[in-house]
Amino acid sequence: MSTTAGSMHSTFTIERHYPIPPERVFTAWQDPGLKSRWFAGPGAAHDMDFRVGGTETVQERRSGSEELRFTSTYQEIRPWELILYSSTMHRGRTLGTVSVTTVEFVSRDGGTRLVLTEHGVYLTDWEGPASREEGTAAWLDQLGAHLARAST
């Protein structure tokens, strides 16, 4: 992690193993209806155009605060292998973070080894590297729970 005038830079990697083939895990990322179930919180608006150059937006308003808006643009998609996207997080009109994320899907031990790496620039004090990593880990856990329910 490094800090420059008015910004903090950080990179993290999170790995998960899902006992589901890569094609099914990838589908949970590419299908807007499926992704909305594990990625967008309750009451959040979710819109997704899963193609290179397409965007994904999640908007939510927490009680007593300004609207949060997370917008991603897909830079590269390799079915069942890789998703690369760049994102911004705004609270109201204030830009809080800019990030670049890769999600890799590797066939391993009859399932999928998912490796998510994010490089972020944090511009405000309302979101930092630790909270972003914690939130990302939580929605990867939600993905795992969704995949487990879908396979029973």
Write up this protein.
With 152 residues, this protein is α+β, with helices and mostly antiparallel strands. It has one domain (8-150): 2-Layer Sandwich (Alpha-D-Glucose-1,6-Bisphosphate, Chain A, domain 4). It is built from three helices and eight strands. The protein has helices at residues 22-30, 32-38, 129-150, and strands at residues 2-4, 7-18, 45-48, 55-61, 67-78, 82-91, 94-108, 111-122. An eight-stranded antiparallel sheet has the order 1-2-8-7-6-5-4-3, with helices on one face. Strand 4 (55-61) and strand 5 form a beta hairpin. The longest helix is centred in the C-terminal third of the chain and has 22 residues, at 129-150. The protein starts with a strand and ends with a helix. The mean pLDDT is 92.
For the structure shown, list the relevant keywords:
152 residues, alpha+beta, Alpha-D-Glucose-1,6-Bisphosphate, Chain A, domain 4, 8-stranded antiparallel β-sheet, globular
Please sum up the structure shown.
This protein has 152 residues and is of the alpha+beta class.
Describe the secondary structure blueprint for this structure.
Blueprint: E1 2-4, E2 7-18, H1 22-30, H2 32-38, E3 45-48, E4 55-61, E5 67-78, E6 82-91, E7 94-108, E8 111-122, H3 129-150
Antiparallel strand pairs: 1-2, 2-8, 3-4, 4-5, 5-6, 6-7, 7-8
Number of strands: 8
Total DSSP helices? 3
Roughly what fraction of the amino acids lie in strands? over 45%
Uncertain runs with pLDDT below 50, 5 residues or more? none
CATH C-level class is Alpha Beta
Spatial order of the strands forming the largest sheet: 1-2-8-7-6-5-4-3
Q: Measured on Cα atoms, how large is the radius of gyration?
A: 15 Å
Domain Activator of Hsp90 ATPase homologue 1/2-like C-terminal: 20-147
Family: Belongs to the AHA1 family.
InterPro entries: ASHA1/2-like_C (IPR013538), START-like_dom_sf (IPR023393)
